[in-house]
Amino acid sequence: xxxxxxxxxxxxxxxxxxxxxxxxxxxxxxxxxxxxxxxxxxxxxxxxxxxxxxxxxxxxxxxxxxxxxxxxxxxxxxxxxxxxxxxxxxxxxxxxxxxxxxxxxxxxxxxxxxxxxxxxxxxxxxxxxxxxxxxxxxxxxxxxxxxxxxxxxxxxxxxxxxxxxxxxxxxxxxxxxxxxxxxxxxxxxxxxxxxxxxxxxxxxxxxxxxxxxxxxxxxxxxxxxxxxxxxxxxxxxxxxxxxxxxxxxxxxxxxxxxxxxxxxxxxxxxxxxxxxxxxxxxxxxxxxxxxxxxxxxxxxxxxxxxxxxxxxxxxxxxxxxxxxxxxxxxxxxxxxxxxxxxxxxxxxxxxxxxxxxxxxxxxxxxxxxxxxxxxxxxxxxxxx
Length: 384
Ligand SMILES: Cc1ncc(COP(=O)(O)O)c(C=O)c1O
What we know:
Layout: H1 24-38, H2 80-93, E1 101-105, H3 108-123, E2 127-131, H4 136-144, E3 149-152, H5 162-170, E4 177-182, H6 194-204, E5 209-214, H7 219-224, E6 239-241, H8 244-247, E7 255-259, E8 269-270, E9 275-276, H9 286-297, H10 301-325, E10 329-330, E11 337-340, E12 355-356, E13 359-363, H11 370-382
Parallel strand pairs: 2-3, 2-4, 4-5, 5-6
Antiparallel strand pairs: 1-7, 6-7, 8-9, 10-11, 11-13, 12-13
Helix pairs in contact: 2-9, 3-4, 5-6, 10-11
Pyridoxal-5'-phosphate (PLP) binds at residues 107-109, 135, 137, 182, 185-186, 214, 216-217, 243, 253, 255.
């Protein structure tokens, strides 16, 4: 094994010793990713937004350490102003009128960890209830925080079993409960009902509670097309996270994470950064705020809604094509995810789709077209 990162066949260096072109090895990686991109319809990321205009920002090490709601960090190459605008857009999308706080986490895993940490500080000695269809990050966050976690059953289509939540919550009703509602489960895109969760906790006699909406996948499309029951409003959720790299396909992972509660617990002012340490990460990507702002400003709200409708239409088209060839499938209402029986083994390299419990799926994110579906269906018919 060589310890040199650069290939021995690297192109000539400039007078300053810099390579004039991209290193051949990185070029190979770029070629591999480009090929993979053409048939990635199993893992969610939009591909309809061009981020190339942001190249000038790559000259700078953009860093947003600490609390985005000021004071701004001493480090001058921050984009906290952009971050605040982006967060305000999401606060509006999720119905948080005022008094909200939050930041751009590195992904929904960090956003859930942060939210559960805030919930733990507020509730004192709570239990976490999570659906068996929840993302694996939820149990991980509970374990990191030392919180006992109780699994709640899920229906076959992926939605939480609210009766099971009621029974399990009633066993510990004197303790506070953190319930994680998934707004678009990873595999089937089922949406848990936050009002039904509140109803189960009411019936179980649980008074002290925090509902965290893990809206990594489905929060944006649901909210953009009028679903409000998981919003940061009374009777809704207490905190929410959604992944910008999914619905907008940002080239850097980023997850707006919001709560309507003021952070409690350890959030000390730090003189070195000139700011308060309220976030899980220390250094945070300032470029993430820029790429997400770019995505949000590419379309008006009507345009953002149109992206949802187009993606759902492609999912509907996929269902019709699968019906036509007799390939078993199903789809949750309004989902861009279409569940289908796993592909024959020879096709799985070209079409790397996840498989769980005997089902696979395609996700028709914005930018995935009927051509992608036709291509897959042709391969399925050929069986190769
Ligand atoms: C429902 C759900 N929650 C959380 C995550 C984790 O998100 P991230 O990869 O941004 O940490 C995912 C990712 O697939 C997800 O689908």
